Protein backbone atom coordinates (compact mmCIF):
# COMPACT_ATOMS: atom_id res chain seq x y z
CA UNK A 1 0.00 0.00 0.00
CA UNK A 2 1.22 3.44 -0.90
CA UNK A 3 1.69 5.78 2.03
CA UNK A 4 -1.04 8.41 1.84
CA UNK A 5 -0.12 10.26 5.04
CA UNK A 6 0.93 13.55 3.47
CA UNK A 7 -2.29 13.54 1.46
CA UNK A 8 -4.73 12.91 4.30
CA UNK A 9 -2.79 15.37 6.41
CA UNK A 10 -2.94 18.17 3.80
CA UNK A 11 -6.73 17.90 3.34
CA UNK A 12 -7.02 20.80 0.91
CA UNK A 13 -5.72 21.14 -2.65
CA UNK A 14 -6.04 23.33 -5.74
CA UNK A 15 -7.37 21.87 -8.97
CA UNK A 16 -6.50 23.79 -12.14
CA UNK A 17 -8.31 23.33 -15.46
CA UNK A 18 -6.49 25.27 -18.09
CA UNK A 19 -6.18 24.72 -21.81
CA UNK A 20 -7.52 25.85 -25.17
CA UNK A 21 -11.08 25.59 -23.83
CA UNK A 22 -10.17 28.59 -21.66
CA UNK A 23 -10.27 30.72 -24.84
CA UNK A 24 -13.73 29.51 -25.83
CA UNK A 25 -14.58 30.42 -22.23
CA UNK A 26 -17.78 28.43 -22.15
CA UNK A 27 -17.01 25.18 -20.28
CA UNK A 28 -14.20 22.69 -20.86
CA UNK A 29 -16.63 20.40 -22.71
CA UNK A 30 -17.43 23.13 -25.26
CA UNK A 31 -16.06 21.04 -28.12
CA UNK A 32 -18.52 18.26 -27.35
CA UNK A 33 -21.40 20.53 -26.35
CA UNK A 34 -21.21 22.36 -29.67
CA UNK A 35 -19.96 19.39 -31.73
CA UNK A 36 -17.02 21.44 -32.97
CA UNK A 37 -15.02 19.44 -35.52
CA UNK A 38 -11.46 18.70 -34.43
CA UNK A 39 -9.89 20.78 -37.22
CA UNK A 40 -12.00 23.80 -36.43
CA UNK A 41 -11.33 23.49 -32.70
CA UNK A 42 -7.64 23.37 -33.48
CA UNK A 43 -7.64 27.04 -34.41
CA UNK A 44 -7.66 27.98 -30.72
CA UNK A 45 -4.06 26.84 -30.74
CA UNK A 46 -3.19 29.83 -32.92
CA UNK A 47 -4.50 32.20 -30.29
CA UNK A 48 -3.35 30.69 -27.02
CA UNK A 49 -1.09 33.39 -25.63
CA UNK A 50 -1.33 33.67 -21.84
CA UNK A 51 0.76 36.79 -21.47
CA UNK A 52 -0.31 37.41 -17.87
CA UNK A 53 0.42 33.88 -16.62
CA UNK A 54 2.02 34.24 -13.21
CA UNK A 55 2.22 30.84 -11.51
CA UNK A 56 4.06 32.36 -8.56
CA UNK A 57 1.00 34.52 -7.90
CA UNK A 58 -1.37 31.54 -8.31
CA UNK A 59 0.72 29.53 -5.88
CA UNK A 60 0.70 32.32 -3.32
CA UNK A 61 -3.09 32.74 -3.55
CA UNK A 62 -3.61 29.01 -3.13
CA UNK A 63 -1.12 28.71 -0.30
CA UNK A 64 -2.81 31.53 1.61
CA UNK A 65 -6.15 29.77 1.11
CA UNK A 66 -4.66 26.85 3.00
CA UNK A 67 -4.08 24.53 0.06
CA UNK A 68 -0.99 22.35 0.21
CA UNK A 69 -1.13 20.35 -3.01
CA UNK A 70 -2.22 20.99 -6.56
CA UNK A 71 -3.45 19.01 -9.54
CA UNK A 72 -3.28 20.62 -12.99
CA UNK A 73 -4.71 19.45 -16.30
CA UNK A 74 -1.63 18.57 -18.31
CA UNK A 75 -4.02 17.50 -21.06
CA UNK A 76 -7.82 17.67 -20.94
CA UNK A 77 -10.28 15.83 -23.20
CA UNK A 78 -9.56 18.30 -26.03
CA UNK A 79 -6.08 16.74 -26.32
CA UNK A 80 -4.08 19.96 -25.94
CA UNK A 81 -0.91 19.56 -23.88
CA UNK A 82 0.45 22.21 -21.55
CA UNK A 83 3.91 20.70 -21.87
CA UNK A 84 6.36 20.23 -24.70
CA UNK A 85 5.40 16.68 -25.60
CA UNK A 86 7.49 15.01 -28.30
CA UNK A 87 4.46 13.02 -29.40
CA UNK A 88 2.19 15.79 -30.66
CA UNK A 89 2.24 19.33 -32.01
CA UNK A 90 -0.98 20.12 -30.23
CA UNK A 91 0.81 21.73 -27.32
CA UNK A 92 1.70 24.99 -25.63
CA UNK A 93 5.09 25.21 -27.32
CA UNK A 94 3.37 25.25 -30.75
CA UNK A 95 1.01 28.05 -29.68
CA UNK A 96 1.97 31.73 -29.43
CA UNK A 97 2.61 30.90 -25.76
CA UNK A 98 5.63 29.02 -27.11
CA UNK A 99 6.85 27.79 -23.74
CA UNK A 100 6.44 24.81 -21.48
CA UNK A 101 3.71 26.16 -19.21
CA UNK A 102 3.65 22.97 -17.18
CA UNK A 103 7.32 23.40 -16.28
CA UNK A 104 6.72 26.97 -15.11
CA UNK A 105 3.69 25.94 -13.11
CA UNK A 106 5.43 23.00 -11.49
CA UNK A 107 8.51 25.03 -10.55
CA UNK A 108 6.46 27.80 -8.97
CA UNK A 109 4.18 25.54 -6.96
CA UNK A 110 6.94 23.24 -5.83
CA UNK A 111 9.03 26.21 -4.73
CA UNK A 112 6.14 27.47 -2.62
CA UNK A 113 5.92 24.09 -0.89
CA UNK A 114 3.11 22.35 -2.75
CA UNK A 115 2.95 18.67 -3.58
CA UNK A 116 2.49 18.33 -7.33
CA UNK A 117 -0.28 16.44 -9.09
CA UNK A 118 -0.79 15.92 -12.83
CA UNK A 119 -4.28 15.40 -14.25
CA UNK A 120 -4.11 13.40 -17.46
CA UNK A 121 -7.20 12.87 -19.61
CA UNK A 122 -7.61 9.32 -20.86
CA UNK A 123 -10.16 10.72 -23.28
CA UNK A 124 -8.62 12.49 -26.25
CA UNK A 125 -10.78 14.14 -28.89
CA UNK A 126 -7.80 15.22 -30.95
CA UNK A 127 -5.91 11.99 -31.37
CA UNK A 128 -6.62 10.42 -34.78
CA UNK A 129 -6.59 6.88 -33.35
CA UNK A 130 -8.95 7.56 -30.46
CA UNK A 131 -12.14 5.74 -31.48
CA UNK A 132 -15.17 8.00 -31.78
CA UNK A 133 -17.77 7.23 -29.11
CA UNK A 134 -20.90 8.76 -27.69
CA UNK A 135 -19.00 11.42 -25.76
CA UNK A 136 -16.86 12.41 -28.73
CA UNK A 137 -17.57 15.73 -30.52
CA UNK A 138 -17.88 13.72 -33.75
CA UNK A 139 -20.42 11.30 -32.30
CA UNK A 140 -23.03 12.39 -34.86
CA UNK A 141 -20.65 12.29 -37.78
CA UNK A 142 -21.26 9.04 -39.64
CA UNK A 143 -18.03 9.25 -41.63
CA UNK A 144 -15.88 9.75 -38.54
CA UNK A 145 -17.70 6.94 -36.77
CA UNK A 146 -16.95 4.57 -39.62
CA UNK A 147 -13.22 5.38 -39.74
CA UNK A 148 -11.04 2.51 -38.60
CA UNK A 149 -9.12 3.69 -35.58
CA UNK A 150 -6.47 1.77 -33.71
CA UNK A 151 -6.90 1.98 -29.96
CA UNK A 152 -3.56 0.19 -29.52
CA UNK A 153 -1.78 3.15 -31.09
CA UNK A 154 -3.60 5.54 -28.84
CA UNK A 155 -2.68 3.47 -25.78
CA UNK A 156 0.94 3.63 -26.91
CA UNK A 157 0.63 7.41 -27.15
CA UNK A 158 -0.77 7.61 -23.63
CA UNK A 159 2.05 5.48 -22.26
CA UNK A 160 4.56 7.71 -24.02
CA UNK A 161 2.98 10.87 -22.66
CA UNK A 162 2.67 9.56 -19.12
CA UNK A 163 6.35 8.60 -19.33
CA UNK A 164 7.24 12.15 -20.37
CA UNK A 165 5.18 13.60 -17.55
CA UNK A 166 6.64 11.34 -14.93
CA UNK A 167 10.28 11.61 -15.99
CA UNK A 168 10.74 15.26 -16.92
CA UNK A 169 9.42 17.21 -13.96
CA UNK A 170 11.07 15.77 -10.89
CA UNK A 171 9.02 14.22 -8.13
CA UNK A 172 5.35 14.00 -9.00
CA UNK A 173 3.12 13.22 -6.05
CA UNK A 174 -0.22 12.47 -7.73
CA UNK A 175 -1.38 11.32 -11.13
CA UNK A 176 -5.05 11.99 -11.66
CA UNK A 177 -6.38 10.01 -14.64
CA UNK A 178 -9.76 11.00 -16.09
CA UNK A 179 -11.89 8.89 -16.72
CA UNK A 180 -13.59 5.54 -17.39
CA UNK A 181 -17.10 5.38 -18.83
CA UNK A 182 -17.60 1.79 -19.89
CA UNK A 183 -21.20 1.92 -18.76
CA UNK A 184 -24.36 0.43 -20.14
CA UNK A 185 -26.15 2.89 -22.36
CA UNK A 186 -22.99 4.66 -23.55
CA UNK A 187 -21.95 3.43 -26.97
CA UNK A 188 -18.24 3.12 -27.46
CA UNK A 189 -17.72 3.78 -23.74
CA UNK A 190 -14.18 3.08 -22.60
CA UNK A 191 -12.77 1.56 -19.45
CA UNK A 192 -9.83 -0.30 -17.97
CA UNK A 193 -9.60 -2.86 -20.78
CA UNK A 194 -9.46 -0.13 -23.39
CA UNK A 195 -6.93 2.03 -21.54
CA UNK A 196 -4.97 -1.06 -20.47
CA UNK A 197 -5.21 0.46 -17.06
CA UNK A 198 -3.10 -2.10 -15.22
CA UNK A 199 -0.13 -1.15 -17.42
CA UNK A 200 -0.64 2.56 -16.91
CA UNK A 201 -0.87 2.07 -13.18
CA UNK A 202 2.29 -0.01 -13.14
CA UNK A 203 4.08 2.51 -15.34
CA UNK A 204 3.17 5.32 -12.97
CA UNK A 205 4.35 3.39 -9.93
CA UNK A 206 7.57 2.28 -11.63
CA UNK A 207 8.48 5.78 -12.74
CA UNK A 208 7.46 7.52 -9.52
CA UNK A 209 7.54 5.24 -6.51
CA UNK A 210 5.29 6.72 -3.87
CA UNK A 211 3.03 8.47 -6.38
CA UNK A 212 -0.68 8.50 -5.52
CA UNK A 213 -3.00 7.38 -8.30
CA UNK A 214 -6.72 8.13 -8.32
CA UNK A 215 -9.42 5.58 -9.10
CA UNK A 216 -10.57 6.75 -12.52
CA UNK A 217 -8.56 4.24 -14.50
CA UNK A 218 -11.50 2.06 -13.53
CA UNK A 219 -9.36 -0.13 -11.27
CA UNK A 220 -8.59 0.50 -7.60
CA UNK A 221 -6.04 3.23 -7.02
CA UNK A 222 -4.99 5.01 -3.85
CA UNK A 223 -8.02 7.24 -3.41
CA UNK A 224 -11.61 7.72 -4.54
CA UNK A 225 -12.84 10.87 -6.26
CA UNK A 226 -16.47 11.85 -5.66
CA UNK A 227 -17.17 14.72 -8.04
CA UNK A 228 -19.28 17.75 -7.15
CA UNK A 229 -21.11 16.13 -4.25
CA UNK A 230 -20.45 15.38 -0.60
CA UNK A 231 -20.88 11.76 0.54
CA UNK A 232 -23.38 11.53 3.38
CA UNK A 233 -21.12 9.28 5.44
CA UNK A 234 -17.41 8.53 5.49
CA UNK A 235 -17.04 6.31 2.40
CA UNK A 236 -16.00 2.71 2.94
CA UNK A 237 -15.07 -0.27 0.86
CA UNK A 238 -15.75 -3.76 2.20
CA UNK A 239 -16.53 -2.10 5.49
CA UNK A 240 -13.14 -0.37 5.70
CA UNK A 241 -12.75 3.41 5.56
CA UNK A 242 -11.06 4.56 2.34
CA UNK A 243 -8.95 7.55 1.39
CA UNK A 244 -11.01 9.98 -0.64
CA UNK A 245 -11.02 13.42 -2.14
CA UNK A 246 -14.09 15.35 -3.24
CA UNK A 247 -13.38 17.54 -6.25
CA UNK A 248 -15.43 20.68 -6.54
CA UNK A 249 -15.92 23.62 -8.85
CA UNK A 250 -16.46 27.20 -7.77
CA UNK A 251 -19.31 27.75 -10.25
CA UNK A 252 -20.22 24.40 -11.81
CA UNK A 253 -17.71 24.61 -14.65
CA UNK A 254 -14.13 23.33 -14.44
CA UNK A 255 -12.80 25.39 -17.30
CA UNK A 256 -13.06 29.19 -17.48
CA UNK A 257 -16.73 29.97 -18.19
CA UNK A 258 -17.03 33.70 -18.67
CA UNK A 259 -20.80 34.11 -18.42
CA UNK A 260 -21.34 31.70 -15.57
CA UNK A 261 -21.69 33.60 -12.34
CA UNK A 262 -23.11 30.84 -10.18
CA UNK A 263 -20.31 30.96 -7.67
CA UNK A 264 -20.67 29.12 -4.40
CA UNK A 265 -20.64 31.42 -1.41
CA UNK A 266 -17.54 31.58 0.79
CA UNK A 267 -19.31 30.02 3.75
CA UNK A 268 -20.61 27.13 1.62
CA UNK A 269 -17.06 26.50 0.41
CA UNK A 270 -15.82 26.48 3.99
CA UNK A 271 -18.60 24.09 5.00
CA UNK A 272 -17.72 21.76 2.11
CA UNK A 273 -14.14 21.55 3.30
CA UNK A 274 -15.17 21.01 6.93
CA UNK A 275 -17.69 18.36 5.90
CA UNK A 276 -15.03 16.41 4.02
CA UNK A 277 -12.56 16.48 6.90
CA UNK A 278 -15.35 15.48 9.30
CA UNK A 279 -15.73 12.38 7.09
CA UNK A 280 -11.99 11.73 6.72
CA UNK A 281 -11.80 13.23 3.24
CA UNK A 282 -10.03 15.93 1.26
CA UNK A 283 -11.26 18.70 -0.99
CA UNK A 284 -9.68 19.53 -4.32
CA UNK A 285 -11.13 22.93 -5.20
CA UNK A 286 -10.94 24.04 -8.80
CA UNK A 287 -10.06 27.25 -10.56
CA UNK A 288 -10.32 27.80 -14.30
CA UNK A 289 -7.77 30.43 -15.29
CA UNK A 290 -8.55 32.49 -18.39
CA UNK A 291 -6.73 32.65 -21.71
CA UNK A 292 -4.43 35.41 -20.53
CA UNK A 293 -3.36 33.22 -17.65
CA UNK A 294 -5.21 34.95 -14.85
CA UNK A 295 -7.57 33.70 -12.19
CA UNK A 296 -10.86 35.54 -12.48
CA UNK A 297 -11.59 38.12 -9.76
CA UNK A 298 -14.42 36.11 -8.18
CA UNK A 299 -12.18 33.06 -7.84
CA UNK A 300 -9.49 35.16 -6.18
CA UNK A 301 -12.09 36.68 -3.91
CA UNK A 302 -13.41 33.24 -2.88
CA UNK A 303 -9.91 31.97 -2.22
CA UNK A 304 -9.13 35.06 -0.14
CA UNK A 305 -12.27 34.51 1.92
CA UNK A 306 -11.11 30.95 2.58
CA UNK A 307 -7.65 32.32 3.40
CA UNK A 308 -9.21 34.52 6.08
CA UNK A 309 -10.94 31.54 7.60
CA UNK A 310 -8.03 29.12 7.24
CA UNK A 311 -5.57 31.52 8.87
CA UNK A 312 -7.56 31.21 12.07
CA UNK A 313 -8.90 27.69 11.73
CA UNK A 314 -6.19 25.64 10.09
CA UNK A 315 -5.89 23.56 13.25
CA UNK A 316 -9.34 22.07 12.79
CA UNK A 317 -8.58 21.00 9.20
CA UNK A 318 -4.93 20.15 8.65
CA UNK A 319 -4.00 16.82 10.16
CA UNK A 320 -7.54 16.42 11.44
CA UNK A 321 -10.13 13.79 10.58
CA UNK A 322 -13.39 12.21 11.63
CA UNK A 323 -14.25 11.90 15.32
CA UNK A 324 -16.11 9.11 17.04
CA UNK A 325 -18.13 11.70 18.93
CA UNK A 326 -21.53 12.57 17.46
CA UNK A 327 -22.01 16.23 16.58
CA UNK A 328 -25.46 17.83 17.00
CA UNK A 329 -27.55 18.63 13.92
CA UNK A 330 -26.01 21.30 11.69
CA UNK A 331 -22.63 20.96 13.31
CA UNK A 332 -19.53 18.96 12.43
CA UNK A 333 -16.81 17.50 14.58
CA UNK A 334 -13.27 17.04 13.41
CA UNK A 335 -10.59 15.65 15.70
CA UNK A 336 -6.84 15.72 15.95
CA UNK A 337 -5.38 13.86 18.90
CA UNK A 338 -7.14 15.00 22.05
CA UNK A 339 -8.52 18.17 20.50
CA UNK A 340 -12.02 18.07 19.23
CA UNK A 341 -13.31 20.81 16.92
CA UNK A 342 -16.96 21.72 16.84
CA UNK A 343 -17.93 23.60 13.66
CA UNK A 344 -21.21 25.49 13.95
CA UNK A 345 -22.99 25.82 10.60
CA UNK A 346 -25.91 27.67 12.17
CA UNK A 347 -25.74 29.88 15.20
CA UNK A 348 -27.63 28.65 18.26
CA UNK A 349 -29.18 30.64 21.06
CA UNK A 350 -26.78 30.61 23.98
CA UNK A 351 -26.41 26.86 24.44
CA UNK A 352 -24.99 23.90 22.59
CA UNK A 353 -25.83 20.58 24.18
CA UNK A 354 -23.36 17.79 23.54
CA UNK A 355 -24.54 14.30 24.36
CA UNK A 356 -22.38 11.81 26.21
CA UNK A 357 -19.67 14.32 26.78
CA UNK A 358 -20.09 15.32 30.41
CA UNK A 359 -16.78 14.99 32.19
CA UNK A 360 -14.84 14.43 28.99
CA UNK A 361 -13.81 17.99 28.24
CA UNK A 362 -11.19 19.83 30.27
CA UNK A 363 -11.41 23.21 28.57
CA UNK A 364 -13.14 24.92 25.64
CA UNK A 365 -12.39 27.99 23.60
CA UNK A 366 -13.26 29.62 20.30
CA UNK A 367 -10.56 28.73 17.85
CA UNK A 368 -10.47 32.14 16.12
CA UNK A 369 -9.55 34.16 19.21
CA UNK A 370 -8.83 31.65 21.99
CA UNK A 371 -11.60 33.12 24.14
CA UNK A 372 -12.92 30.74 26.73
CA UNK A 373 -16.27 29.06 26.14
CA UNK A 374 -18.14 28.22 29.33
CA UNK A 375 -18.99 24.62 30.17
CA UNK A 376 -21.88 23.27 32.19
CA UNK A 377 -22.73 19.75 33.21
CA UNK A 378 -25.99 18.12 34.29
CA UNK A 379 -28.17 20.01 31.87
CA UNK A 380 -27.41 23.10 33.91
CA UNK A 381 -28.24 25.37 30.99
CA UNK A 382 -31.95 24.90 31.21
CA UNK A 383 -33.42 26.92 33.93
CA UNK A 384 -37.13 26.47 33.47
CA UNK A 385 -39.98 24.20 34.31
CA UNK A 386 -39.74 22.54 30.92
CA UNK A 387 -38.60 18.99 30.79
CA UNK A 388 -36.06 18.32 28.11
CA UNK A 389 -35.32 14.68 27.72
CA UNK A 390 -32.33 15.36 25.50
CA UNK A 391 -30.52 16.88 28.47
CA UNK A 392 -29.28 14.28 30.87
CA UNK A 393 -26.52 13.77 33.36
CA UNK A 394 -24.27 12.93 30.45
CA UNK A 395 -24.92 16.15 28.57
CA UNK A 396 -22.22 18.77 28.36
CA UNK A 397 -23.54 22.24 27.66
CA UNK A 398 -21.44 24.94 26.03
CA UNK A 399 -22.37 28.53 26.77
CA UNK A 400 -21.99 30.73 23.70
CA UNK A 401 -22.64 34.45 23.20
CA UNK A 402 -25.78 35.70 21.41
CA UNK A 403 -23.61 37.16 18.69
CA UNK A 404 -22.14 34.82 16.13
CA UNK A 405 -18.41 35.47 15.90
CA UNK A 406 -17.53 37.29 12.70
CA UNK A 407 -15.98 34.33 10.86
CA UNK A 408 -17.44 32.19 8.04
CA UNK A 409 -17.96 29.19 10.30
CA UNK A 410 -17.22 29.50 14.03
CA UNK A 411 -15.26 26.68 15.60
CA UNK A 412 -15.07 25.70 19.25
CA UNK A 413 -11.95 23.85 20.27
CA UNK A 414 -12.54 21.27 22.98
CA UNK A 415 -9.59 19.91 24.94
CA UNK A 416 -10.49 16.36 25.84
CA UNK A 417 -9.58 15.04 29.26
CA UNK A 418 -6.69 12.62 28.99
CA UNK A 419 -8.22 9.16 29.02
C1 LIG B 1 -15.21 15.06 -15.39
C2 LIG B 1 -15.20 15.95 -16.61
C3 LIG B 1 -14.12 16.90 -16.62
C4 LIG B 1 -13.48 17.32 -15.34
C5 LIG B 1 -13.44 16.25 -14.33
C6 LIG B 1 -13.02 16.70 -12.95
O1 LIG B 1 -14.74 13.83 -15.57
O2 LIG B 1 -15.21 15.24 -17.80
O3 LIG B 1 -14.36 17.95 -17.47
O4 LIG B 1 -12.17 17.55 -15.65
O5 LIG B 1 -14.60 15.58 -14.26
O6 LIG B 1 -13.31 15.77 -11.97
Question: What does this protein structure show overall?
Answer:
This protein is an alpha/beta fold and 419 residues long. The protein has twelve helices and 16 strands. The protein has a seven-stranded parallel beta sheet. Strands 10-11-16-13 form a four-stranded antiparallel beta sheet. It has a three-stranded antiparallel beta sheet with strand order 12-15-14, with no helix packed on it. A hairpin with a 2-residue loop joins strand 10 (331-336) and strand 11. Helix 5 runs parallel beside helix 6 (101-112), helix 8 (151-167) packs parallel to helix 10 and helix 11 (266-278) packs across helix 12. The longest helix is centred in the middle third of the chain and has 17 residues, at 151-167. It starts with a helix and ends with a strand. The mean pLDDT is 96.
Amino acid sequence: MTDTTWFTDARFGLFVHWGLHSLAARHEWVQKHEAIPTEEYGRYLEYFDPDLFDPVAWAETAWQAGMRYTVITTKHHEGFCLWDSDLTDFKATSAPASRDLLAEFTDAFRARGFKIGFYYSLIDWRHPEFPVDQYHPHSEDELAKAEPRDMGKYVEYMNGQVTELLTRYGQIDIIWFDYSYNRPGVWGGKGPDDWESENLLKLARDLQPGILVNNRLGIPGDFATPEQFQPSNPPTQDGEPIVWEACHTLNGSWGYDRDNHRFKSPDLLARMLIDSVAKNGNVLLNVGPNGRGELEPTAVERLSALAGWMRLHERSIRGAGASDFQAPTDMRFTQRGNRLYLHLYTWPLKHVHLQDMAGKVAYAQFLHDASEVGLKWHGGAVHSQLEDSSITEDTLTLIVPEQKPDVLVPVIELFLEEA
